[in-house]
Write a structure and sequence with these properties.
711 residues; mainly alpha; Na+/H+ antiporter like fold; 26 helices; globular; 4 domains
């Protein structure tokens, strides 16, 4: 019988994933958030499951433990892996303010307002229960909103604030929720001593969670570095890092009351460390696919949670019509609390902020309305013991202690309110955010963004025209096909050029800054791309790669943030961040001749590439003086000359060593060529898949030998 139950549960899961795949495709066509349709489908599956043939549909059920310990770490890691810690540090005030103070304010407003409304309506709901609801429903969803933000071209800073707040308030929400739930299950009433212990426990969970993430993040980054070039193992280690950090934090909390940790905070911050410090320890080929890997697992987790949200309603043995007034009141109160926490916290921050640090009112409106509730709220409410689960007897004791007289228990009450609130945000808020953004004109591109947008169209159309010309010369296209396609893309190119001229004409006062900023950023992005290519093919080792990469990223940050006087690109910036300082502390012999040679060789290569690409761009009439290109090309020519000079000086000092090193590096360049040739042969089916894999394994083994073995 147990085997049959497992079979039906497996069949249920497979069927739900099958249905969700088509829901995802359909959501793209009708442009409705995927999670919204999943809930709708879940609701529609309830009557279908009453049919004997489809009775297996609801056999797969998520336990609180599976949700909390399996799916939640995946969702948290995927959301925070790609966050740039420098940007988070830059916006730490609004992020910390909204994630901690805003969440606490929201929790208090929800619990106080609901308690007052229910009291005057002669409905006796204990304040601790409402406080528990306030904590779990104040956690916001970064995934759905950020997808809409990206599609609607929301300002990067707004998206960053929202993402940072959502990720870190998940941690504070769970920490606060677990503290309140612990008080309830231990049978305490809300006295001053209880509040004091709760506050102390909450602060301890957040603080020790932040300490713990540092240890775990650096540890797993070191492990990734030590197993490099073992692709399957690297992917597995990132998965383990998410769950191990979460589980260890929860185990420490369980066995030690003196050092409670927040597994959510630990996992989020551990993944930020891995995403910033450990990312470049990952094999380049794996790193390229890592984001897609995590997006897929997050997709599966969200799919299962949201489609089962609708089915979960069928499990509840309560009168849903009885709960309608409670749900409506809760939705209104939660919206008021979110508005109060956003406008209140941001208003205080704006009073002490200067210039561009202030958060515009239109952004505050979006932060307030865009606060979707998500899987975490469902996960937390299911952590409250239900009928037949461990700890339920403690919940019954609490209900008896506070005089709970309803025909449903605390978990059923909060589950209905939570699902109602989540559905409101999914059906109403998620479907109207795009419209509100457009009405508030938040989706409007800035001057630099418009310039870069048109520049991108010019570059793509220019390359397409060259490709068409080559294809026509090789007789791949007929005269008619070539003429039609050439005319189409030439018109697009002309339109983009016309738009750039119009943008510059409308910004005559800032024209010089706008052009210089766009060209400088373009040059730096070229540097970054070619540097990554060198690292991918192991022509530069990890430490030197990170050193130059941070230099480039510092330059990008300086150029993006300049106000007023134009800043020029410089290789000699000393604006080191905390990771760079730690880097120099642990690698004191970093400035030996071999390292200097490798860095200057890399600089010479990437600056030469920048010069080549900028010269090609300068042939296009962008509508502004060509001297802008000449100036930046001359600057990079100086960088190139300086790097070549230093490289040659070092080569003369240790000629024998450098000749051996250069031989290895040239050999790696030839391996790159061999790889491209083999790929072409494989695509033309001249060599079999088996031989192709064998060739590629041999190339990879030789490619990823340490370039500094001679040092």
């Amino acid at each position: 019988m147990e085997d049959l139950q497992f079979l039906f549960a497996t069949l249920s899961l497979i069927f739900l994933l099958f249905i969700s795949s088509f829901v995802y495709i359909f959501s793209k066509k009708i442009k409705v958030p995927y999670t919204v349709l999943l809930v709708v489908v879940g609701l529609l599956l309830i009557p279908l499951s009453t049919n004997p043939f489809f009775s297996f549909i609801d056999d797969f059920r998520l336990t609180p433990e599976v949700l909390f310990f399996v799916f939640l770490p995946v969702l948290l890691f995927e959301s925070s892996y790609n966050i740039n810690y420098k940007q988070i540090i830059k916006e730490w005030k609004p992020v910390a303010g909204l994630a901690i103070l805003g969440l606490i304010v929201s929790t208090i407003i929800i619990s106080v307002l609901l308690y007052g409304i229910f009291y005057f309506a002669d409905v006796e709901i204990p304040f601790l229960v409402l406080l528990l609801f306030g904590a779990l429903i104040s956690a916001t969803d970064p995934v759905a909103v950020l997808a809409i933000f990206k599609k609607m071209w929301a300002p990067c800073r707004l998206a960053l604030i929202f993402e940072g707040e959502s990720l870190f308030n998940d941690g504070t929400a769970v920490a606060l929720f677990m503290v309140i739930l612990g008080i309830i299950l231990e049978g305490h009433i809300l006295w001053l001593e209880t509040v004091s212990l709760g506050v102390l426990s909450f602060v301890s969970m957040v603080f020790w969670g932040l300490i713990f993430w540092g240890i775990m993040g650096i540890l797993f980054s070191k492990i990734l570095g030590s197993i490099r070039y073992n692709e399957e193992a690297e992917v597995t280690i990132t998965m383990i890092s998410a769950h191990a950090t979460f589980l260890l934090a929860e185990l420490i909390t369980y066995f030690s009351h003196f050092t409670p940790l927040s597994g959510v905070i630990a996992t989020v911050t551990c993944s930020i460390i891995i995403g910033n410090y450990g990312k470049y320890k990952i094999t380049p080929r794996v790193e390229q696919h890592m984001q897609r890997f995590w997006e897929f697992f997050a997709f599966i987790a969200n799919t299962v949670v949201f489609i089962l949200m609708g089915i979960t309603l069928s499990y509840l043995e309560v009168d849903m019509m009885y709960f309608v007034p409670f749900i409506v009141i809760s939705i209104i109160v939660v919206a008021i609390a979110r508005a109060g926490s956003v406008y209140g916290v941001v208003g205080i921050l704006n009073k002490f902020a200067k210039g561009d640090e202030r958060i515009p009112m239109t952004w505050q409106h979006l932060l307030s309305w865009g606060s979707l509730r998500w899987a975490l709220a469902i996960i937390m409410v299911l952590l409250i013991p239900g009928k037949g689960e461990p700890g339920y007897i403690h919940l019954l004791h609490f209900q008896e202690q506070v005089g709970w007289s309803f025909p449903f228990d605390v978990q059923e009450f909060l589950l209905v309110l939570t699902i109602g609130s989540v559905m409101f945000t999914l059906f109403i808020k998620a479907t109207t955010i795009s419209y509100i953004m457009h009405r508030l004109k938040v989706d409007k591109l800035g001057d630099l963004e418009e310039l870069e947008y048109e520049e991108g169209k010019i570059l793509s159309n220019f390359k397409i025209l060259n490709k068409l010309e080559n294809s026509y010369k090789k007789a791949y296209l007929s005269q008619i096909e070539y003429s039609e396609l050439f005319q189409k893309y030439e018109n697009r190119l002309k339109n983009a050029l016309f738009n750039i001229k119009a943008i510059l004409k409308n910004n005559e006062e800032n024209e010089l800054q706008l052009i210089a900023k766009a060209l400088s950023l373009h040059a730096l992005w070229i540097e970054k791309q070619y540097l990554k290519d060198l690292f991918m093919y192991n022509e530069i080792d990890e430490k030197n790669f990170k050193y130059i990469l941070r230099k480039i990223e510092q330059q990008i940050y300086r150029i993006e943030e300049w106000r007023g006087q134009i800043r020029s690109i410089s290789w000699e910036t000393e604006d080191y961040d905390i990771f760079t300082k730690l880097f120099f502390r642990f690698f004191r012999n970093f400035d030996n001749p071999i390292n200097e040679y490798i860095r200057n060789r890399a600089k010479a290569i990437i600056t030469s590439k920048v010069i080549t690409e900028l010269r090609m761009l300068s042939e296009i009439d962008f509508g502004f003086d060509k001297t802008f290109f000449d100036d930046i090309i001359e600057l990079y020519a100086q960088f190139n000359k300086s790097a070549e000079k230093k490289k040659n000086m070092i080569s003369l000092e240790i000629r024998a060593t450098i000749m051996g090193l250069e031989s290895r590096l040239v050999d790696k360049s030839l391996l790159r060529l061999e790889e491209e040739v083999l790929k072409d042969l494989f695509q033309k089916e001249i060599i079999t898949p088996k031989l192709y894999i064998k060739f590629m394994d041999e190339i990879e083994e030789e490619m990823f030998m340490d370039v500094k073995r001679l040092s």
